[in-house]
Amino acid sequence: MAVLGSSSSCSVAVVGAVLVIVLVLNGAGLCNGGKTSAFVRKVEKTVDMPLDSDVFRVPPGYNAPQQVHITQGDRVGKGVIVSWVTPDEPGSSEVLYWSENSEHKQKAKGKVNRYKFYNYTSGYIHHCTINNLMYNTKYCYEVGIGQTVRQFWFTTPPEVGPDVPYTFGLIGDLGQSFDSNLTLTHYENNPQKGQTVLFVGDLCYADQYPNHDNVRWDTWGRFAERSVAYQPWIWTAGNHELDFAPELGENKPFKPFTNRYHTPYRASNSTAPFWYSIKRASAYIIVLSSYSAYGKYTPQYKWLEEELPKVNRSETPWLIVMMHSPWYNSYNYHYMEGETMRVMFEPWFVKYKVDVVFAGHVHAYERSERVSNIAYNIVNGMCIPVHDQSAPVYITIGDGGNLEGLATNMTEPQPKYSAYREVSFGHAMFDIKNRTHAYYNWHRNQDGYAVEADSMWFFNRIWHPVDDSTSV
Ligand SMILES: [Fe+2]
Q1: The Purple acid phosphatase N-terminal domain covers which part of the protein (predicted)?
Q2: Per-residue pLDDT tens digits for 169-221
Q3: Model-level pTM?
Q4: Which residues pair with 426 in a beta bridge?
Q5: Active site annotation includes 104
Q6: How far is the CA of 200 from the centre of ligand 1 (A)?
Q7: Smallest Cα–Cα separation from 186: which of 435, 464, 447?
Q8: For 395, phi and psi rounded to 5 degrees?
């Protein structure tokens, strides 16, 4: 099994040479099932970190802001939503911010809210959007008042454009176990230095506790702060964000998630925070909701139908889609759960040449070949995925490390659409070099920070639409 381009210095010439071999071998049709990793991990139970763990520590000081997190706040990356919680009283919803080289502090005014869930009442949740920032600039920001001001920083992305290099981290189904902590640590220490996290859903798993104990939303917010206060995480809603619990009198889906995590959905004309799009550097990122209606005529369907033709690949060559439930998944967990959405949207993904689809939900890692399965109608029997140059690569990255443990059971034999699969926790990086090439790799937690377990050069579907499959 050859892995094309196993180091970031791989030259285009080498890529081209291997490409010829790939094309020849693929001429006979889809290659046989890909690689199931032989990596053997130590079998250990995945356990949540106890409430008194240092990663959950409450910052000192009366009413000190905690659970600080940021996400993109506008269409193009000049806006940032800053969110945090004050536990004792509302305090101030203002953010003070200034560019690194400036003395002049500016103010943005936010809003505060709280919510109840069964017998839990949240702290005071603040959301403040900062707009009209300069591109490619480091900003410091402060939240809190009096003795309990806390200071953080972030760097805005470069101006949107086709050849802007940018590095996205990929994390999914993180939870708050000891393994979650390892995943986050590995991401933070990865020398590739991710600039923004594309998070594919399932944040804290509070719903796994009695009465959906929302205290676990708070602990997760404090745990993740060390990364998400300093770089934006782009949120996807997973099934563990639903918190639909009629037995507790809680009938409104996504209640804790929508109160705590905002998205810039209005900037892309979406009508709900669960599906939206942003531009960031050279990427156009579409976030979809596996747990909101997507049938014909539904708001999400209509939005996506109008959204895809708007993508200008001359401006943002990389078209990335995020969702929670994977369409191509060969594990015996959540098998076929993504099938109905695939049936609805896959022809569009092929038509508009989506480069890559990231999903979570399955607690393991898998990367697909470029395949599509859109030929079927009720009489023709054509229901097998086929190799398709216009199709995305599908990557399941639900291996953040939550308390539910790993998905250890795979369908056998490995289907032909599956290029690489492995039952380990980890994270991935999508490192855009220019309009034609991006380098992708996946890192398991057992290895050193710089070690990659799976990798692939992506050739952009618009500007370099030839086969970039890694498995031969
Ligand atoms: Fe999930």
Answers
A1: 65-156
A2: 999 999 999 999 999 999 999 999 999 999 999 999 999 999 999 999 999 99
A3: 0.92
A4: 444
A5: no
A6: 9
A7: 447
A8: -125, 125
